[in-house]
């Protein structure tokens, strides 16, 4: 690969550093790459704090960003994701590009007051996104 | 998968992630017909559960009874022991439950005070309505939770005899005088050290809760002597002044899809994110396999 890179470099016309960085950009991951973003809400914003006693604040997080063309190991994506990307690029652009979505979650414990006045502590599955993937 | 697709569409349509005025940008397929309240029909079950009790439904439900302040204090304390500040469940060995319900007795119970001299100090008739317990919630432990009114001076330690009996309702719906079964046991209370006394009634209530009984009618008689049993002196202060009618605490394992199952989630999602998780069946003893090595390593 070093020899190939040397050959590539010979082919590349002697250019200012700026174009060089432009040239390498196509090999980099997209700027706004798919990743986990913070989002924090309090149940009082939703006006649910009268029946949700705890927690006061809740960070569900979310996934946002572009999926790079070669997503294999970085996102734990199945091979299907690359196939879908190829379909989008080469065959039919109405097929959507792979999307940036949550891959793993963590649970949340909630303390609420029931309509009959009883109190319940409950642990809900999949309430906080902890990892993103491209699918 | 259909489930996540449903959820992703529901999140978009639910207005939780998209401000209401943006709903015009929603894919026309996702825009709800005028009559249907926004997003309710599309919410995944969990958000439906949460939204059900949201304020917009609050008024439409039957008037909400305010919870007992002592009970609320106890449950906040239980929350702090069970979850971190951010609300993440703590993974402690003893923490088998994923649901804890606290019921305060219905208001129509009667407080019957017997004469102090006869030694039968405190007797109370309790009726608990368990409508909120779902069909997928299985009982792990049940506790009668007594709290003491600390403003009433009371002997620092008490030796008590407690007599519990459950009343059957015959077909006519009247509470007949006969008692289905009862239990008596002694307990030693160190009052000064604690505000709460938990009386484990699991084996006593298990048959009733297992048959999904909606109402549990029980009578609790306390006969307490001051100091420890050796002195056997009569009680100075009426116990009932200090004993607040107990709450019923149910530690449950919710086997529904949206509840968190620590035994399964950790093992199955890490290895194969796509593989559907096997749920622990309510008849398996979640503690039964812990610590047992099998050929494939520790079983969930």
3D architecture notes:
The complex is a heterodimer of chains A (135) and B (300). Chain A is of the alpha+beta class and 135 residues long. Chain A has four helices and seven strands; from the N terminus they run ααβββββααββ. The longest helix of chain A has 13 residues, at 79-91. The mean pLDDT of chain A is 85. Chain B has seven helices and eleven strands. Classes of the chains: A alpha+beta (135), B alpha+beta (300). The A-B interface holds A 46-48, 50-55, 57-59, 62, 76, 101, 103-104, 106-128 and B 4, 8, 17, 46, 50, 53-55, 58, 61-62, 64-67, 71-72, 75-76, 78-79, 82-83, 85-89, 98-104, 129, 131-132, 254, 257-262, 265, 269, 273.
The total beta strand count of chain A reads 7
| Distance linking N and C termini of chain B | 25 Å
Mean pLDDT of chain A: 85
Strand order of the largest sheet of chain B: 2-3-8-5-6
* SSE string of chain A, helices as H and strands as E: HHEEEEEHHEE
Short recap of the structure:
Chain A is an alpha+beta fold. Chain A has 4 helices and 7 strands, in the order ααβββββααββ.
Write the layout of secondary structure elements.
The complex is a heterodimer of chains A (135) and B (300).
Chain A: H1 2-11, H2 17-25, E1 35-37, E2 41-42, E3 52-54, E4 57-58, E5 62-64, H3 72-75, H4 79-91, E6 100-113, E7 119-134
Antiparallel strand pairs in A: 1-5, 2-4, 3-6, 6-7
Chain B: H1 2-14, H2 45-52, H3 55-58, H4 69-82, E1 99-103, E2 111-112, E3 122-129, E4 137-148, E5 157-169, E6 175-190, E7 196-200, H5 202-210, E8 215-226, H6 239-242, E9 243-254, H7 262-271, E10 293-294, E11 297-298
Antiparallel strand pairs in B: 1-9, 2-3, 3-8, 4-7, 4-9, 5-6, 5-8, 10-11
């Amino acid at each position: 690969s070093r020899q190939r890179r040397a050959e590539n470099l010979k082919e590349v016309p002697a250019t200012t550093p700026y174009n060089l960085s432009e040239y390498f950009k196509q090999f980099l991951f997209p700027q706004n790459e798919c990743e986990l973003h913070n989002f924090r809400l309090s149940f009082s914003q939703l006006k649910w704090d009268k029946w949700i006693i705890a927690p006061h604040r809740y960070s569900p997080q979310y996934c946002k960003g572009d999926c790079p063309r070669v997503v294999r190991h970085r996102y734990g994506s199945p091979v299907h994701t690359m196939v879908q990307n190829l379909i989008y690029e080469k065959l039919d652009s109405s097929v959507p590009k792979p999307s940036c979505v949550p891959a793993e979650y963590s649970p949340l414990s909630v303390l609420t007051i029931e309509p009959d006045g009883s109190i319940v502590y409950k642990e809900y599955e999949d309430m906080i996104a902890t990892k993103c993937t491209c699918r | 998968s259909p489930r996540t697709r449903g959820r992703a569409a529901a999140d978009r349509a639910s207005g939780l992630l998209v401000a209401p005025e943006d709903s015009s940008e929603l894919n026309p397929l996702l825009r709800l017909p005028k009559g249907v309240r926004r997003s309710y029909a599309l919410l995944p079950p969990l958000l439906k559960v949460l939204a059900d009790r949201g304020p917009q439904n609050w008024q439409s439900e039957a008037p909400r009874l305010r919870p007992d302040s002592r009970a609320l204090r106890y449950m906040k304390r239980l929350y702090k022991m069970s979850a971190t500040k951010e609300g993440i469940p703590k993974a402690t060995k003893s923490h088998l439950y994923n649901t804890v319900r606290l019921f305060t007795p219905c208001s129509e119970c009667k407080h019957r005070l017997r004469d102090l001299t006869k030694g039968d100090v405190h007797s109370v008739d309790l009726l608990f309505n368990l409508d909120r317990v779902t069909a997928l919630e299985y009982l792990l432990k049940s506790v009668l939770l007594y709290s003491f009114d600390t403003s009433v001076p009371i002997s620092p330690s008490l030796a008590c005899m407690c007599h519990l009996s459950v009343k059957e309702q015959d077909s006519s719906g009247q509470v007949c005088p006969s008692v289905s079964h009862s239990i008596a046991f002694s307990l030693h209370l160190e009052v000064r050290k604690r505000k709460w006394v938990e009386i484990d009634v699991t084996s006593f209530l298990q048959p009733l809760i297992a048959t999904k009984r909606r109402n549990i009618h029980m009578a609790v008689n306390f006969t307490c002597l001051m100091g420890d049993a050796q002195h056997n002196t009569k009680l100075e202060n009426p116990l009932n002044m200090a004993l607040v009618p107990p709450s019923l605490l149910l530690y449950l394992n919710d086997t529904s899809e949206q509840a968190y199952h620590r035994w399964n989630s950790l093992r199955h999602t890490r290895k194969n994110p796509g593989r559907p998780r096997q749920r622990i069946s309510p008849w398996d003893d979640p503690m039964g396999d812990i610590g047992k090595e099998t050929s494939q390593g520790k079983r969930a």
